[in-house]
Design goal:
It is a single chain. The protein contains 6 helices and 14 strands. By secondary structure, it is of the alpha/beta class. It has 2 domains: about 20-110 and about 160-270, Ribonuclease Z/Hydroxyacylglutathione hydrolase-like (Metallo-beta-lactamase, Chain A, 4-Layer Sandwich); about 150-155 and about 270-340, Winged helix-like DNA-binding domain superfamily/Winged helix DNA-binding domain (Arc Repressor Mutant, subunit A, Orthogonal Bundle). α3 packs antiparallel against α4 (about 260-285), α4 (about 260-285) packs across α6 and α5 crosses α6 (about 305-320). The longest helix has 24 residues, at about 260-285.
Length: about 350
């Protein structure tokens, strides 16, 4: 029988720009940037009343910034809390700071240097994993292969290079376990690398809730984009959350997660099942990411083969890091050949 994967919640209707009161201390304003990797859009959170914090200001979107300023009219913003430096999370902080005097708090600047626009073009760039418009239909797999059915709306994908906030640098550098105190509220910062190495979650201690950014989302698995994404770090960061006392997670995309201590172990099990599938493919002699995708991802449309390939690659990189997989190239890539070691 097929293993049961994480139960995702796709029931999430929003009114862009409106203020939604989620709890006595938490409000949300959603940016109008829906998409394959942002679901219904970026949910920016406001903590507290009177003297408040804003979590993940969002993308460069003047309408969203205006909606945030309207939402806190008559209040004082004292903190801008940044979960990480992807382009749908942190860039609007700079726009807000043109109107308010509040420092940004984050783990650090974007971990990857901005690409040099004058650098020679890599001839392999854009070729990805070798899929094209004429790709034949993938082979069918049995329903008892140990993997859950995969919906295009919540399969692992990858983050485009132009979706990074290259310019962000926090005014206040946050460390793991640091408690940030506001007026009537306090958050504990948890360093949760994996999706990106500078990812933070913020636990709101007064309400036993957590702003989980892109680390844990209720509508989707989390993207692990190379080169900075790390599956092994992501799994360790998931393990960090098990056994904590938060009862609600507020992800930046999607509805509140009301069963985090069921979802987090399910996400860990999901990744373990994916790894076992990939190991089985390698054991059967499949050596390329392309061939592994065509074996494993029979229920997704062809336009999601490249995101599926990025997911497979993240698992292969994790296996390569612990010497369970050998790579034909010094630096593992999308066209490399992968084999089991030993």
């Amino acid at each position: 029988m097929a293993a049961k994967g994480p139960q995702f919640n796709l029931d999430h209707e929003v009114v862009y720009g409106a203020v939604e009161q989620l709890s006595p201390m938490v409000r949300r304003v959603t940016a109008e940037n829906p998409g394959k990797f942002t679901f219904q859009g970026t949910g920016t959170y406001i903590i507290g009343n009177g003297r408040v914090a804003i979590v993940d200001p969002g993308p460069v979107d003047t309408n969203h910034v205006e909606a945030l300023l309207a939402a806190v009219e008559g209040e004082t913003v004292t903190h801008l809390l940044i979960t990480h430096t992807h382009g749908d999370h942190s860039p609007a902080a700079a726009l807000l700071q043109e109107h308010i005097d509040a420092p940004t708090w984050g783990f650090g600047p974007h971990p990857i240097a901005r690409p040099d626009p004058d650098a020679p073009i890599d001839p392999e760039r854009g070729l990805g994993f070798g899929f094209d418009q004429e790709e034949p239909e993938p082979e069918q797999r049995s329903s008892d292969d140990g993997a859950e059915d995969t919906s295009p709306k919540h399969d692992e994908g990858y983050q485009a290079a132009d979706a990074n906030d290259w310019d962000f640098s926090p005014d206040e550098v946050v460390t793991h376990g640091q408690v940030i105190d506001g007026d009537g509220w306090s958050v504990e910062a948890l360093h949760t690398p994996g999706h990106i190495s500078n990812h933070l979650c913020f636990a709101l201690r007064e309400e036993l809730s957590m702003f989980s950014g892109d680390h844990v989302m209720g509508w989707s698995t989390t993207v692990i984009p190379p080169p900075d994404g790390s599956l092994n770090s992501y799994l360790d960061s998931l393990q960090l959350l098990i056994g904590r006392n938060e009862t609600v997670y507020h992800p930046t995309h999607g509805a509140p997660i009301t069963d985090p201590q069921q979802l987090v172990p399910a996400l860990l099990a999901h990744r373990k099942a994916r790894t076992e599938q990939i190991l089985a493919c390698l054991n059967d002699g499949l050596a390329t990411i392309k061939d592994i995708v065509l074996r494993m991802y029979t229920h997704v449309p062809k336009e999601l083969y490249n995101p599926a390939g990025a997911s497979v690659m993240s698992h292969l990189l994790a296996l390569h890091e612990i010497d369970k997989v050998h790579c034909s190239d010094d630096e593992p890539g999308p066209r490399s050949l992968y084999t089991l070691t030993g």
